[in-house]
Amino acid sequence: MLRITLRDGEKAIVNGAVLRAVGRTQIAVENMVSILRGREVMRPEEATTPARQLYFATMLAYIDPNGRDAHQDAVVQLLSLLIAGLGTAEARELCIRFANDLAQGEYYKALSVARELIAMEDAATADPAATQAA
Question: Exposed, middle or buried: residue 55 (CB in 10 Å: 0-12, 13-18, 19+)?
Answer without folding.
Answer: buried
